[in-house]
Structures are given as structure tokens and as C-alpha cells.
Amino acid sequence: MRRSTACWSVFDLPAKEAEVAKLHERSAEAGFWDDPEAAQAVMQQIADLEEEICSWRQLEAKIAEITELWDMAEAEEDSALMEEMAAEVEALEKQLVRMRLDLLLSGPHDAKDAILSIYAGAGGTESQDWVEMLLRMYLRWAERRGYEAEIIDQTEGDEAGLKSVTLEIRGHNAFGYLRSERGVHRLVRISPFDNAHRRHTSFALVEVIPDVAKEIDIQIDPDDVRMDVFRASGHGGQNVQKNSTAVRLTHIPTGIVVQCQNERSQVQNRERAMEVLKARLYDLEVQKQEEEQARLRGEHVSAGWGNQIRSYVLHPYRMVKDLRTGWETGNTTAVLDGDIDGLIEAYLRYKVGDTIQQVTSQ
User: Fold this and answer.
1) How far apart are CA 27 and CA 30, in angstroms?
2) Which residues contact 171 (CB under 8 A, 6 or more apart)?
3) pLDDT in tens, 109-130
4) Among 80, 86, 125, 307, which residue's beta carbon has the most beta carbons within 10 A?
5) Distance CA 248, CA 240 (A)
6) Rounded CA gap, 132 and 219, in Å?
7) Domain total of the chain
8) Cα(200)–Cα(35) distance, integer angstroms
9) What are the pLDDT digits (tens) for 193-249?
């Protein structure tokens, strides 16, 4: 229970409640809805804060109740009640782990939805199958957290798996959590596609950007964008639509390519692809700034192919290890089934520690 007290001091419920009160006052001002998008953003901020406050108040009440019952059980030497309370404490600890993660999120876009893309590396079918395994892992993780996940675009593999896939994961703090997944993921296993049952190593690149297109003002010269249209395809490459509704946008100055094929019309696919393109251009600029800051500190930072962040070994032993934080587990099945909160929390703590170290060294 002592850990929960520490979390309360960091979260500062009275300050959050005062912030909500100010936002409510602002929403009651005349002309508040003159700018619908800005007003909606404020209302969403209110809803998110009220949800957080409610969760912590409920936890506070539950802890008080369990503490009282525990003291009663000890006084009366009621072993059955103590056993019941022990189970309640264990459940609260799990809830606290999840809520503690929220306290580690401090980035300007951490609360936003996330656009996550996975690309197969060298290795043909092996790497393409690995992309599909990672897709399943993230879909399961999103389901565990109650997030909505929608595939925006995917390119099927030649024999199995996926060459690439892009999905949007919608939910409070989705980007804050998933930014821990940026980089190269390495898989070592006995190949199910090799008749000789040899061990293979596969690579996949995961990119994660915040879905901020509606909140940023990025002007794109129409002459800088080439649009191609094609028919959406299903598994095995067969066309699933008679009309060319899928859209591919190529930003000529940067070489960024964005595809969208899951909307019903070409216009909808183009609008969604343009939103993703804006978000990618914004993220590219942020990465340039981060890399320049890292260069000035004498560091090398890259989320590209040269930056392997995690290994998943299924043979000759079983282990998942994050190479940045050192966090590891032998329960590879659970991780590949979406249980990645331990990896995420370790990364967030690592980043918080790194930030503190930078500040104190300056």
C-alpha cells in the first residue's frame, strides 16, 4: 500500500481537480464553441482528466476499505477474511501497476492515438511471417487495454505473412505507451517454412507516430505529392474491389510513401492517407530535432534499421529481452500474446531516468 501513497503525491489529485474546474469555467464562456475543433479538444481534455481522477478516487476508497477490513481480520484472527483480503490486495497491485504507467507519460503527444507501422526486413517469407506475428501481438495488447485498433493498410506477403502493415490504435495514452516499440525487432526460431528445420533469424522494423494531423498546421504543396490509385487487394494478392479506391501518396521531397485502402471510397482513402502523411512529416521534423540534440550530446540515436531494440528467442531457449533496458522474461508466449506492459514500463522508467540524468548533468 505504501507504493500507492507515493503515486498519489506524484499525481496530485487536488491540482488535477483544480485544473478540471478551470476548464469547466472556460467551457461555459460565451463564444467557446465558435471554434468547434478547439472546443472539442478542451472537452476531451476534461473527459480524460475526470476519468483519471475518478480512477484514483475509486482506488483510494478501495484501499481504505481493504485496510479497515484487514485490521478487523487481524484483530479477530479471521484467517478466511485475511485470505480474501490478500486476494483483493493482489488485484489492487495489478491495477496500480497499470495506473502507475500513466504517471510516467509526460511527452506533449503521449495522450494521443498512435499510428503504428511494421515493415518486413531481409529474409523473405520468414520476416513477412514475423510482421504478422507482431501485428497479432499489438492487436492483442490493444484489446487487453480496451483500445480500438483499425488496420489502415497492409501489403500481403508472397507466400505467407505481411510485407508491411499500418494500423491506428485509438485510446488515451496509446502513443505514450507504444513509442517504446520504435525500432528493429529480432526473432530467432526454428523456421516453420524450412523443411530442414533450421534456425532462422528474422527482422522487422516498427515505426510509431502520434496521430496529430488534425491538431497541427502543416502546409503541403500539392505539386510535392504524387497520387496513385489501385484496387485494394486481399490475402494472396487477389483484388477485392472492382474499382480503384486504394490510394498511394508519395511525398517527393522526402520520399515518404503512405497507402490507405481500407476506407470505402477513393476520397476517404485519400483524406486518411493525407492525415497520415502530415503526421509522418511532423514526426520526421521531431526526429531531426532529437537527432541534432543527441549529436550535440555526443550520442547516436536512430529508429531505423541500424537500431535493434529487442530480441525474441524461441530456440534454442525461450527469452524476450529489451536491449535498451535489460528487461527480460522467459514467458515468450505471453509476450507474443500481447502481454507487453512489463516491457513498456521498463522503457518508460528508463527514459525518465535518462531525462533526469541529462537535466542534472547540465
Assistant:
1) 8
2) 113, 142, 145, 146, 147, 148
3) 888 899 999 999 977 899 999 9
4) 125
5) 17
6) 34
7) 2
8) 55
9) 887 778 899 999 999 999 987 677 788 999 999 999 987 765 444 444 446 789 999
275 and 333 inside one domain: yes
CA quadruple 312, 318, 321, 323: dihedral sign: negative
Strand partners, 183: 206
Residue bearing cell 478466511: 80
Residue ranges making up the domain that contains 13: 2-103
Final residue in a domain of this structure, among 71, 103, 135: 103
- Together in a domain, 130 and 62: no
Q: What's the grid cell of residue 84?
A: 480474501
Task: Find where cell 509476450 sits.
Answer: 335
The CATH number that applies at residue 39 is: 1.20.58.410
Cis status, amide bond into 210, omega within 30 of 0:
no
184, 258: one domain: yes
Structure pTM?
0.71
What does the alpha-carbon distance between residue 60 and residue 155 come to, in Å, rounded to a whole number?
Answer: 48
Single out the residue of 337, 296, 336 nearest to residue 314, CA to CA. Answer: 336
Residue 108 placed within a domain: no
Rounded distance between C-alpha atoms, residue 195 and residue 3, angstroms: 52
- What single-letter amino acid sits at 332? T
User: In the numeric block, which cell numbers belong to residue 312?
Assistant: 525474441
- CA dist 278 and 289 (Å) reads 17
191 and 213 fall within a common domain:
yes
Instruction: Look up residue 231 and give its amino acid.
Output: R
Please report the beta strands in 40-179, taking only residues with DSSP state E, as ranges in sequence order: 114-120, 148-156, 162-170
- Cell readout for 130 is 514475423
In degrees, to the nearest 5, what angle opens at C-alpha 282 toward C-alphas 210 and 260?
Answer: 65
Residues forming beta bridges with residue 308, ordered by sequence position: 184
Domain-ending residue, one of 79, 103, 127: 103
